[in-house]
Amino acid sequence: MRRPLIAGNWKMFKTVREAIGFAEELRNVVKDVAGVEIVVAPPFTALHAVADAVRNSNVGVGAQDLYWEAEGAFTGEVSPGMIKEAGADYAIVGHSERRRLFGETDASVNRKTRAAIAAGLTPIVCVGETLEERERAETLGVLDRQIDAGLEGIPAGQAAGLAVAYEPVWAIGTGRHATPAQAAEAHAHVRARLRQRFGADVAARCRVIYGGSVKPENVRDLLASADVDGALVGGASLDVPSFAAIVMAARPAAL
C-alpha cells in the first residue's frame, strides 16, 4: 500500500518568524499521526529555520522550486545541493504557477527533476491541464506529454520514488476543484501512463497526489479513489488547523 503524502505549498507567504511559529505548532498537533507522510514547503528564506523547527518530528520539509545546476553564475537561483544542505528532503518541480508565470517548460521540468534526484531530494513533479485544454477534451493528451517529457531519461528505479502531483490549472487558487470523478479519471490515466513507461511495479509504487483548492471539506471525497495517494495543498496549508485536518483525513484508518 502506498503511504499517503500530504504536502503544503506555502507559495510566497510567511516570514521566517511566522514560518517557525507555524512549524512548531504543526509538529505538536500532528505528533501522534501515523501512516501519513507530512511535508511543508516554505519560501527559500525560511527553509533552514523550518527544518530546524521540525527536526526529529514526523514533519518533512520541501522546497518550492530549484535550479538544475550545482553552482555558477545564475543570479537568483538556488541549487539542489543548497536546498539539501538547508534541511529539505523534497522539492516541488513544475508547479503550474512556475509554468504559467515564469515560462517553465517540460524540458526544464525534466532537468530539475533529474537534478533533484541526483542531490538526494524527492521530487514532487506537477502536471495538469488548463481550463481551455479541458474544454477541448485535451486533458489526457496534456498529461501524457508532460509525463513523457518531464520524466524522460529517468530510470525506473528512480521514478518509483518520486511523486506526481496532478493539479488542474483551472483549480489552482480559484476555489474550484476537480470533482472526485474527474480526479479519479486523471489519476488513473497518470498511473496507466507510468505503467506504460516504467512497468507495473513502478506504477504501483509511485504516488500520484491531487492539487487544486484542496480543503478539509473536500479532501476525504478526493482521497476516496484508489489512485489518489494524497494532496498538494495550497491556501489551506497556511493555517495549522485546516492543514492538520487534511492530514488527519488522509490517515488510512480515516478513509
Describe the structure.
- There is one protein chain.
- The protein has helices at residues 16-29, 47-53, 80-86, 96-102, 106-118, 131-135, 139-150, 156-159, 180-198, 200-205, 219-222, 240-249, and strands spanning 5-9, 37-41, 59-63, 90-93, 122-127, 163-166, 207-211, 230-233.
- With 255 residues, it is α/β, with parallel strands linked by helices.
- It has one domain (5-254): Aldolase class I (TIM Barrel), CATH 3.20.20.70.
- An eight-stranded parallel beta barrel has the order 1-2-3-4-5-6-7-8, surrounded by six helices.
Highest CATH level, the class = Alpha Beta
Name the structural class.
alpha/beta
* Tally of separate domains: 1
CATH-level-4 superfamily name: Aldolase class I
Task: Summarize it.
By secondary structure, this protein is an alpha/beta fold. 42% of the residues lie in helices and 15% in strands.
Key features of this structure:
TIM Barrel; 12 helices; 8-stranded parallel beta barrel; alpha/beta; 255 residues; 8 strands
Present the secondary structure layout.
Layout: E1 5-9, H1 16-29, E2 37-41, H2 47-53, E3 59-63, H3 80-86, E4 90-93, H4 96-102, H5 106-118, E5 122-127, H6 131-135, H7 139-150, H8 156-159, E6 163-166, H9 180-198, H10 200-205, E7 207-211, H11 219-222, E8 230-233, H12 240-249
Parallel strand pairs: 1-2, 1-8, 2-3, 3-4, 4-5, 5-6, 6-7, 7-8
